[in-house]
Amino acid sequence: MDSCRIPANASKCSRNTMECFMVLSTQAQKISIGILCGLFGTMCVFENSLVLYLIFSSPGIRKKPSYLFIGSLALADILASIIFVCSFVNFHVFNEAGFSKEVFLLQLGGVNTSFSASLSSLLLTALDRYLSISRPSEYKLLMTRKRAWTALGVLWLTCATIACLPLLGWNCCVLDSSCSELFPFVDVNYLSGWLCFVVVLLSCIIYAYAHVLWRARQHVAYMEKHQAQAGKQNTRMRMDVMLAKTLVMVLAVLVLCWSPVLVLMIYSVFSRLSDHLRKVFAFCSTLCLLNSMVNPIIYALRSKELFSSLRRVFSHFRRQLKATEESPEAESTHKSSVIETICEDTHAV
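Above: the chain sequence. Below: its structure as tokens.
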């Protein structure tokens, strides 16, 4: 399999050619990938599901557009984890290639949609923080719940449309063009276009956060000088600065986890990849799951509102558990008292 190369003729679209993309040649490599995907995927689904529950179970939190965008990010990470782990492990670990080109491109489209929506949700969150800090007096008028839901709808529709283009015909089998060395049936020009889309998203996010950090530093300086008179405005500024720092941490993790994958994708567009680099790409792909797993941890540690909601959930759970444990004892005590009363009445008679 190490000597398997992607052919340049029409047979590149056959099922046998898919085996050339199964780059894990040893059992140890397959077990390692399976363990990483299972661990990261399970933790990612659990953590992001908890974030969604905390957001939508709290009326005060779910009304804020900021947390709608964070909820969209959590949903995208859940879908990405489920679809990515199932398809990736099935392909690379179990070497399942007995499905059609359409099924494979549908799976790839699901992964692409989810990860693109995750990145786009970060962009909306960055823009939300940008507006909140740069125009605080007009923020509530500019960022309403209706506009937030509309933006999310446009986001998911755009990501799904772009991801489904290979399935709709933009693939190397239909166009008889050059195929990617990393993904079966994917046209190199489509991969180049998707990479440009991702680079634009990242550039916009970085620009928005650079401005947010600059304004956040100004707010910190302002609060130090006017701490006595600031009042509610001071509290609002502290919340904006805290959330901005939290989302910068999310962005830093995103860049660190996605950089190896994006670099190898860009390199594959301009040059042929060795079998070793293709194996490296397979392992680096699991970093995307790590990114999705780390995001909720950052929210829990940095967001006071989500952390408070989490503590309320745990407190309620402990009370329920305590009540369940005490219930049999209370029932047993009640039965004992009833029996004693009956016995006393019997003796009295």
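Confidence is low (pLDDT under 50) at residues 7-11, 338-343, 345-349.
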